Amino acid sequence: MKKSFWSPFLSALTPYTAGEQPQDRRYVKLNTNENPYPPSPKVKEALAAFSVDRLRLYPSPDADLLRDAIAEAEGVSRENVFCGNGSDEVLALCVPAFFKGGRGAAFADITYSFYPVFCDFFSVSYTQVPLKEDYTMDLAGLGKADADGVFFTNPNAPTGIGVGLEETEKFVAENPGKLIVADEAYMGFFGQSALPLTKKYPNLLVVKTFSKYYALAGIRCGYAVGNEALIRGLFAAKDCFNSYPVDALCQAVCAAAVGDKAYYAAAAEKVKSERSRLRAELVRLGFFVPESASNFLFAGHEKGGEFIYRGLKERGVLVRFWNTEKLKKFCRITVGAPEENDALLSALREML
Ligand code: PMP
């Protein structure tokens, strides 16, 4: 008899589907919101200076070297910083740390699709609050949801729409009994981070990543900033799961990156200027594209997202699409370097 050793629990789960990373040919990769520019030259220096002998030893379990570098760059203390293996891990740990055994979490119906998977994995209930007609987040609705906290993605993904700092502060201030987990994965391309508000509001945790703005998706690191009690909660959750999630090489690389503000600000400006150009061209081609505050565009077309995706893939350009009713007209297009965006536009002109 052939027996599946999967637990009934695992068998009933639907895991998250990561964006394609195909190895069969070279594509113009505009499907996983990576930065088109390389990491800071300081990262290369840190790699060259890193002693291989260091790998013999375990890293600091609390990632203290990196926490200090982040604390300095963000103007907070080490006690306010928690680091994880990608912001995915930080967000996942928020679920058992803050939402399990209580009223669960709330988030938009169209947002980062990993949140429901994290909740299911930790058997935590969740409420999905529909976006408004104009695809913006219904903050009042999220505030009213029967939940202990909210995953508040800002800018939202996949819409790319951002909420300004004033409105964010109002949302946090009006919901003192709810933990607001602000997932700011794309905030570097918007510049309205709620991070400074973590000093004022004990119910705000800001989560960031090295994957997008810092062009380090390959190293896997993310962090949370918040008051000490929240950070201690994340450490307690981590120490029930993985003592050393941030390796020594990762700490050295990310510490070098976070200190190079000028380099990354300049790279983000280039992305933002391409974002405007690409959006204008897509609108000219008949797409509906909300104003984006991130490094990708949410582009709807009457022919549908799948048609656009397939036509582009045949022509060597990768974007992301969804099969769901609400998203079937859309695809999500990462803003690439100018020549990558040109390749996308000429493929679209040929197809449409
Ligand atoms: N939050 C959002 C909104 C994202 O789109 C992503 C990237 N897929 C993440 C978090 C996770 O990023 P990472 O694990 O690479 O830090």
Description:
The chain is α/β, with parallel strands linked by helices and 352 residues long. It is 38% helix and 14% strand. Strands 2-8-7-6-5-3-4 form a 7-stranded mixed sheet, with helices on both faces. The chain has a 3-stranded antiparallel sheet with strand order 9-12-11, covered by helices on one side. A two-stranded parallel ribbon has the order 1-10. Helix 2 (41-49) runs antiparallel to helix 9 (248-258), helix 4 (86-99) crosses helix 5 and helix 4 (86-99) crosses helix 8. The radius of gyration is 20 Å and the shape is globular. The structure holds 4'-deoxy-4'-aminopyridoxal-5'-phosphate. 4'-deoxy-4'-aminopyridoxal-5'-phosphate is lined by residues 86-88, 112, 153, 157, 183, 185, 209, 211, 217, 222.
Largest sheet: 7 strands, mixed
How much is the radius of gyration in Å? 20 Å
Which regions contain 5 or more consecutive residues with pLDDT less than 50?
Answer: none
Our measurement of the CA-to-CA distance between the termini, rounded to an integer number of angstroms, reads 54 Å
Strand content: 5-15%
The strand count comes to 12
User: Treating each run of at least 4 consecutive H or I residues as one helix, how many helices?
Assistant: 12
H/E order of the elements? HEHHEHEHEHEHEEEHHHEHEEEH
Structural shape: globular
Structural class: alpha/beta
Query: Largest beta sheet: what is the strand line-up?
Result: 2-8-7-6-5-3-4
Oligomer description? single chain
Bound molecules: 4'-deoxy-4'-aminopyridoxal-5'-phosphate
Mean pLDDT comes to 96
**Considering DSSP H and I runs of 4 or more, what fraction of the residues is helical?**
25-40%
